[in-house]
Amino acid sequence: VTDGFGKVIFGSGTKLHVIYSFQH
Questions:
Q1: Can you tell me the distance from the alpha carbon of 24 to that of 16, in angstroms, rounded to the nearest whole number?
Q2: How far is residue 4's CA from residue 6's CA, in Å, rounded to a whole number?
Q3: Strand, coil or helix: 5
Q4: Adjacent-strand bridge partners of 19
Q5: Measured in Å, how far apart are the chain's first and last C-alpha atoms?
Q6: What is the pLDDT along the chain (24 residues), one digit of tens a residue?
Q7: Confidence (pTM)
Q8: DSSP string, 1-24
Q9: Residue 13: φ, ψ to 5°
Q10: How far is CA 24 from CA 12, 14, 15, 20, in A?
Q11: Residue whose C-alpha is closest to residue 3's, from 24, 23, 19, 22
């Protein structure tokens, strides 16, 4: 799931992980 700003966001339990797409 992306937030529309070039980041990938996914839920893990109660935590949110934000991964910038240019770091992939």
A1: 17
A2: 6
A3: coil
A4: 8
A5: 14
A6: 666 666 666 666 656 666 665 554
A7: 0.21
A8: -B-SSSEEEEEETTEEEEEEGGG-
A9: 65, -120
A10: 19, 23, 20, 7
A11: 19
Residues in the chain: 24
Nearest to 23 by CA among 11, 10, 6: 6
The residue whose two tokens read 């839920």 is: 11
The amino acid present at 21, given as its one-letter code, is S
**For residues 23 and 7, is the Cβ–Cβ distance under 8 A?**
no
Backbone angles phi, psi at 21, to 5 degrees: -65, -25
